[in-house]
Write a structure and sequence with these properties.
Number of domains: 2
CATH superfamily of the largest domain: Bira Bifunctional Protein, Domain 2
Strand order of the largest sheet: 1-5-6-11-10-9-7-8
CATH topology of the largest domain: BirA Bifunctional Protein, domain 2
Bound molecules: adenosine monophosphate
Distance between the termini: 46 Å
Length: about 425
């Protein structure tokens, strides 16, 4: 038997109701904050990710699913959505009429990481991105929107951690200080960190190898190197968050794995995730659009790990697994034609109706209705057709009521409304 690819997974129908509910809650909330959906392809030219995410990042160095297509063109399954959204913003000149755009997008990402709990090679993200606004109040509102979503989805112990990564004016001084510090500690660093030290020294701050963590314990901290503009910006983000009642942890060591971040950077950690405790991450990336050849445009956004969100929400898959309102039990050959019409009418009227068109006995049909946890069973036999009324059995109370077949869907709707 052919199995699925390692690190990939199926989302089975029992869980799908919860996934849909999470998605719809996000869409509703983001829409109310003025965001519109954008759908971008799953595959792009490799160059797009190499340029935007940056050489010297784990994603570009080790994790991308890249292949040459039949004409030898290098293509990559997207490891994240921001680069594609930025490409679309530039390519379609979405800035032309109004440079301010707020997008969300939901879909699968691909990274060839080591699979473990909470880490897959195909996983889903919910992204929100704002272009054209450099106000720190936007950063604050975006983090507020994110934590509001997590609260609506009953995510336990969600806490935002924030930091500022500075800008091209002040980051070089920090990098220099970091280089000087790590020169002393070099022999205690892992191979990756030693290699990256000159290329991308910020990454040394979030290496998970214990000896690196130890070696980096007294390293210089970014917020101490911010220029006046960056410091004011960071302070205003914090004030905005306080005004909105969002409780945050200032985490001076927080850096993110992607090159394009500037100024505000954040992660949300939650309970129940173990080692992989980040449920979302994001920040400002004011340089990305110009790096990709667009007009200088400030931007800020986040990505939520959809799979992790579903794993930790206190909402249960069982509660969101839809059960039939009505199970139609057609008894006898003649009643099946009538049941076809009747059950279709019920479905058309928005009533979740299950029917299997089998010629099983009433007993085995009732068993199936029970297993599906149907709210009502409609028993339709020849005598019911003759009398023009069918029995509707409430599976909870066991009460049976005859319902005239004329105008049936409307009558059932009423009964369901009362039940
Ligand atoms: P990133 O794009 O790396 O900033 O990740 C944003 C969020 O996506 C993380 O906080 C995780 O919740 C989620 N995420 C990242 N990588 C994976 C993965 N391999 N499997 C599952 N979720 C992931």
């Amino acid at each position: 038997m052919i199995q699925l690819i390692r690190g990939f997974k199926d989302i089975l129908p029992d869980e799908a109701g919860l996934w849909q509910m999470v998605e719809q809650t996000a869409i509703r909330l983001f829409t109310d904050f003025g965001f519109k959906e954008i759908r971008v392809p799953l595959m792009e030219h490799t160059e797009l990710f190499a340029r935007s995410i940056g050489e010297g990042t784990d994603i570009v160095e080790k994790e991308m699913y890249t292949f040459a297509d039949r004409k030898g063109e290098l293509l990559t399954l997207r490891p994240e959505a921001t680069a594609s959204v930025a490409r679309a913003y530039i390519q379609h000149k979405l800035y032309a009429v109004d440079p301010i755009r707020k997008f969300f997008t939901i879909g699968p990402m691909f990274r060839r990481e080591r699979p473990q709990k909470g880490r897959y090679r195909q996983f889903y993200q919910i992204n929100a991105e704002v272009y054209g606004i450099d106000s720190p109040l936007m950063d604050a509102q975006l983090i507020f929107m994110l934590t509001t979503l997590l609260a609506r989805l009953s995510v336990p112990e969600a806490r935002a951690h924030i930091n500022s990564l500075g800008c091209p004016a002040c980051r070089p001084q920090f990098k220099e200080a970091l280089l000087a510090f790590t020169a002393e500690a070099e022999d205690r660093l892992c191979e990756d960190c030693r290699r990256r030290r000159t290329q991308n020294p910020l990454r040394l701050l979030d290496c998970k190898v214990p000896t690196c963590r130890e070696a980096m314990a007294g390293a210089p901290a970014l917020p101490d190197f911010l220029c006046d503009d960056c410091r004011d910006h960071f302070e205003a983000v914090k004030t905005g968050l306080r005004d909105l009642g969002v409780d945050v942890v200032i985490d001076k060591r927080l850096v993110r794995g992607l090159d394009y971040y500037t100024r505000t950077t954040f992660e949300v950690h939650a309970g129940g995730l173990g080692a992989q405790s980040a449920v979302a991450g994001g920040g400002r990336y004011d340089g990305l659009i110009s790096t990709l050849g667009g007009p200088a445009t400030p931007a800020v956004g986040f990505a939520i790990g959809f799979d992790r969100l579903v794993e930790i929400t206190a909402l249960s898959a069982a509660d969101h697994d839809k059960r039939p309102d009505i199970f139609v039990a057609a008894l006898g050959e003649a009643s099946r034609a009538a049941a076809l019409k009747l059950s279709s009418d019920l479905s058309m009227a928005g009533i979740l109706t299950e029917i299997d068109f089998s010629s099983k006995s009433l007993k085995s049909l009732m068993k199936r209705a029970d297993r599906l946890q149907a709210k009502f069973v409609l028993m339709l036999g020849e005598s019911e057709l003759e009398s023009g009324a069918a029995m509707l059995r409430n599976m909870g109370t066991k009460e049976q009521i005859p319902v005239p077949l004329e105008n049936f869907a409307a009558r059932v709707k009423e009964i369901l409304g009362e039940a």
